[in-house]
Amino acid sequence: MASLNKAMIIGNLGRDPEVRYTQDGKAVASFSLATTDKWKDKATGENREKTEWHRIVAFGRLGEICGEYLSKGKQVYIEGRLRTRSWEKDGITRYTTEIEATTMQMLGARDASGSYQGQGNNMNAGSRPNTGGSQNNNMNPGNSQQSDMAHEGGGHMGQPSPPPEDDIPF
Length: 170
Fold this sequence. Notes:
The chain is built from 2 helices and 7 strands. By secondary structure, it is mainly β.
């Protein structure tokens, strides 16, 4: 039987991304993303909410883009895989689970000055700058069936539809 390791979340950044570079010059951006569940308590009738924090890491060009365009409070869609890593500190092995981002879509609108705040622009780990031509960055490269479905607006399970063409330089 095949396996699947996929995470899709929409949330707000808890802090500005921190970008570091590996010894071979590959960018690594890390940041935290908050998702909030809201519900009405049946017993008391009170509105309740619970916030979960997720660690996100993005590599390469996607990491550079996250570092350049994302900031605390911005809402984003992240798609990727769950990854658990370990390290030793003071003789104790520690573990953390994070989402390794393969796709990032900035959500929101332009501000009053007209600068971009992320109105539906998708980037994935293999993205190249958008030079104004028709380019679908919604899915991972090499998966034409999913790319075709997303391009035709046939996405499923709440996946965002492709962005409108605009003059954003990536």
